[in-house]
Amino acid sequence: MAQKNSSPWVDYVIFGLTVFLVFCLIFESFIDLPSLVAWLGRWHPLILHFPIVLLLMAAVIGLFNQMVPKLLLMVATLSALVTAITGFFLGTESVPKGDLLFWHQWMGAGVAILAVVWYWVSTNHLQQTYLVKGIQVVLIILVGLTGHYGGMVTHGEDFLALPRSKKLEKIPENPLIYEHIVYRVLDNNCIACHNPNKIKGELLMTSIGELIKGGESGPALVVGDPGNSELIRRLHLPMEDEEHMPPEGKKPLSENEIQILERWIALGASDTLKLSHLDNDEPLVGMVRKMMEPGTINSWAKLPKVSDSTLQNLASDYVTIKRIASNSQALSVSVYLPPEYDPKNITDLNRISNNIVELDLSGIPIGEKEMDLVATCKNLEWLEVDRTPITDAEFAKITGLENLRVLKAYETGISDESVAILKDFKGLKSLYVWDTQMSDQGLSELREAMPNLHLDYGIDPELKMEFIEKDTIVDSIQ
Amino acid sequence: MEEDKTNSENPLKVNRRHFFSQLSVGIGSLALGSLLIPDLFKGGPAPLASQPLGIPHFAPKAKRVIYLFQSGAPSQLESFDYKPTLAKRMGEDLPESIRNGQRLTGMTAGQDKFPLMPSAAKFAQHGKSGAWVSEFFPHIAKISDEICIVRSMHTEAINHDPAITFFQTGSQQSGRPSMGSWMSYGLGSENQNLPSFVVLTSRGKGNSQGLYSKLWSSGFLDSKHQGVLLRSGKDPVLYLNDPDGISRSDKRHLLDHVSSLNKIHHVETGDDEIESRIAQYEMAYRMQMSVPDVMDIKKEPESIIKLYGEDSQVPGTYAANCLQARRLAENGVRFIQLYHQGWDQHGNLPNEMAGQAKDVDQASAALILDLKQRGMLEDTLVIWGGEFGRTNYCQGNFDPKNYGRDHHPRAFSIWMAGGGIKPGITYGETDEFGYNIVKNPVHINDFHATIMNNLGLDHEQLIYKYQGRRFRLTDVAGNVVNDILT
Questions:
Q1: Could you list the residue ranges that cross the membrane (chain B) (predicted)?
Q2: Which residues of chain A have pLDDT under 50?
Q3: For chain A, N or C: smaller number of CB within 10 Å?
Q4: CATH second-level architecture of B64-235+296-484?
Q5: How far is CA A270 from CA A223, A237, B161, in A?
Q6: What is the pLDDT of residue A172?
């Protein structure tokens, strides 16, 4: 099928781009892109949609034994090449390349080169041969895979995974140790390979019975004897060991999770045991409680986005605003006393109040206005208002900060009136309230209401006396 | 890519590699020549960090470090590593199977005998954790449930300077950035009005080794990360105060003009140090206000002064520095490095070490208690330790009342507290002679990796490229010691 009107320079461009692409791929590790060229890579996510649509269209038309319009194929091939090259540019930004990117890059290059081959073959009058049919089929598959890998690069590997609501289910207050704790650990780590569909090593881990029955290597679980349970043995093997579970490349279990499994087996691997059945000094209680704590990191994932420029605008020589970690929307704010203090420095933070998880106002002469701002920081986990003139009146503003973990309010004017508010901070772990107006009665009321709270009322007086009284270094030697 | 931008802005800032690599994409055919000289296009422009700077890589457990460095190497055998066997076998020669070819310093290499010497200080177990602490450190013993004693530190260096340089910079040879500089580089400043890396020094009566400013140098990192030595007395920072007759606004005008001149110079030469200098002038200007306030311990109540010991009223003592360290930490200094000199007990160990311990014991323990009551132990990592250990055999005359110990790199003890470290544990173990580690060794690289981990930094990701090579604090080694983390 000759097409007389095709202009030769398009062929040259395609040839040139192909050579350039191949060159790029071969000399990848030696190439250092100027910033403008690297910037071109940023267009990859836009351009890539063209070859996907055009190539699929062309290939499907071909497979239905229809004539593939030359123009379509030409544009498809060109766009595939440009996409592959911009993709290559974009890829150089992330070093080292992960597996996903690696496969995406080579399959993407494959698509482009295959398209060129098809284009070349078809301009050489070989439109309807098995070779071309083959190319079309492979192209469709490759485009799909490349697109899928690319999607995983941008959206994360489990973007397309089916929703699994079970994982997000909250553990009930008084969980069944097997159903709510142990099974969750197994489900998150093991059952993906040891389920009725996969049965790796002929082991099913979906029920206690199956665990006792075991697989190729014998029973996975020996009731009451974690030491002889294959499951536990494999968890403890060094990572390099072939038999270590989960296998290489999979996330290993946390120390706490392993201990939970061990302890549960040692206690008889019961499926009816509840947390409330256990004594408080039973180690399993602590481990399970640890697992029940809401992950702080998870709660940060839901924070609204805040831009770097906003942070720069609000920060000053005396207000430091930092992200808790790179790519995190959680903010840590520290305020230092400027020569001339103006509450506006702090009240201006209301633009980002939802993102503030740590706020340090130690030693700042704050009042009601500033505490109003604090009250709007709903995600606050760490608050320092020590060495400030606040009293119960100001403190009353910040009721209901349920994520608050650490509160420093020493050397302030708060008194027993604030106990009610403190009791309301359900998540509070540490509280520093020495040198306040709080009475022993208020403190013991607080201790009673929050038995797990670390309540710091200054250095133990006895210990303090030992330090203050006299230097007790041994004289015998001198 | 930011680097490229600055490079293209200033034509002088192009190096050979960069010149060629710029060319490589522009002229494809030339690049083919790289087949002949593969190295031609290797490597990008200067500094390199695969993570953004100034922010932790992941959520940190500690925000700042107070490093109580005991310069001269306190003996582990008279402090935290209790070895009753040495008393039982007192005077016996160290078995060759234990020494196992360890090289010695020039000071004891000439000795024909290496008689085992027990500790002159008595040991007892303290706290719920039952940690062994000697009677030289009665106050630290009282806070043993707050600290994590690591008895299995080891190093390669056998002399003070390489050993302390190793601890501070991750290399025995000088020239690399100090730990505090790396932290400043990686985490940025918490308070714009104070340097992020501050150094305080003090000196005991014991045999001392020199301290050099290279220990807190920023090496090849930008000099704004350099440690700032705060002196005791009227002028904590030299030349910080304005001369008589110069008002603060005059100073402001002066700085503005100097800065505009410097900027012109920077455009001409492209020297980054000029920008650092501008930043340092500005920092000094702000420090004029902040430093006197932070350093003024008169605001501390008497009970706090007494907690740290009476010494804490005397500027320049270790106790005063500990109190100062707390105030600096409160004010957002990232890395506070103390040095206390005088721990090099080659002779007269029992006496000298008792004196040294008296200098530091109460104040170190008080610092922990004080940080704890302020909730600062939750995000401040405190480290106490020297550059290596001391031998289990006697140096010089064999006299249980007055003996010496030589340098020993194979095993020594330090302690850490707060900032994501498990309290109330003792980690690692040495053999019955206290000579070799038998369990859980911790190398200096591991120590660095662990500290960085607690500060939210991946020690393998905080990288600086200099002279064609990528540098890390942990160089090419280091494992985070997970066992001692909370």
A1: none
A2: 1-4, 165-167, 296, 472-478
A3: C
A4: 3-Layer(aba) Sandwich (3.40)
A5: 9, 25, 60
A6: 78
The token pair that represents B357 in the structure block? 């311990």
Diameter of chain A by CA atoms?
109
Strand partners, A455: A431
Q: Are B133 and B151 in contact (CB under 8 A)?
A: no
**DSSP symbol at A247:** P
Å between A331 CA and nearest CA of chain B: 11
Secondary structure element (H or E) that encloses residue A365, with its range: none
Q: Are residues A351 and A382 in the same domain?
A: yes
* Spatial distance between the Cα atoms of B338 and B329, rounded to a whole number of angstroms: 12
The partner residues of B338 in beta bridges, in order of sequence, read B68, B200
Distances (CA, A) of B353 to A11, B135, B318: 85, 11, 15
Q: Tell me the pLDDT tens digit for each residue of A159-209.
A: 776 655 444 566 777 888 898 889 888 888 888 778 776 677 888 888 888
- Identity of the residue in A23, A32, A317 whose CB atom sits nearest the CB atom of B28: A23
Amino acid in position B399: D
B interface mutation test: which of A455, A471, A478 has the most B CBs within 10 A?
Answer: A471
Report residue B40 as tokens.
């031609």
Q: What is the pLDDT of residues B16-69, one digit of tens each?
A: 766 666 655 555 544 444 444 444 444 443 334 445 677 888 889 999 999 999
- Complex ipTM value: 0.84
A317 and A453 assigned to the same domain: yes
Please judge whether B21 and A434 are an interchain contact, meaning their C-beta atoms are less than 8 angstroms apart.
no
Q: What are the φ/ψ torsions at residue B360 (nearest 5 degrees)?
A: -105, -20
Q: Which of B179, B159, B181, B25 is nearest to B105 (CA)?
A: B159
Q: Going edge to edge, which strands form the sheet with A406-408?
A: A319-323, A331-335, A356-360, A382-384, A406-408, A430-432, A454-456
Range of the domain at A328: 301-464
| Total domains, chain A | 3
DSSP state at residue B207 = -
Contact A151, A160 (CB under 8 A): yes
Minimal Cβ distance to A34: which of B22, B28, B43:
B22
Angle at A100 between CA A97 and CA A106, to 5 degrees: 80
Share the mean pLDDT of chain A. Answer: 85
Same domain, A357 and A415: yes
Half-sphere exposure of A337 (CA within 13 A, CB side): 16
Last residue of a domain, one of A293, A319, A347: A293
A25 with A110, same domain: the answer is yes
Inter-chain CB proximity A471 and B362 less than 8 Å: yes
| Chain A: closest CA distance from residue B37 (Å) | 11
- Residue A342 domain-assigned? yes
Reported as a single tens digit per residue, the pLDDT across B260-311 is 999 999 998 888 889 888 988 888 888 888 888 888 888 899 889 999 998 8
Nearest chain A residue to B356, by CA = A473
B303 shares contact with chain A (CB less than 8 Å) = yes
- Quick check: B206 contacting A, CB < 8 Å? no
Contact B57/A434, CB-based, under 8 Å? no
pLDDT at A250: 76
A455 and A403 belong to one structural domain: yes
CATH number, domain with residue A334: 3.80.10.10
Of A35, A326, A473, the CB nearest to B52: A326
Kindly state whether residue A470 falls inside one of the protein's structural domains: no
CA distance B96 to chain A (A): 32
Question: Which of A345, A408, A412 has the alpha carbon at shortest distance from A380?
Answer: A408
Mean of the pLDDT values across residues B177-188?
94
| CB of B173 closer than 8 Å to CB of B162 | yes
The predicted pLDDT at position A115 comes to 93
User: Which of A248, A269, A293 lies at the terminal end of a domain, its last residue?
Assistant: A293
Q: Which of B22, B41, B332 is facing A320, going by the closest CB pair?
A: B332
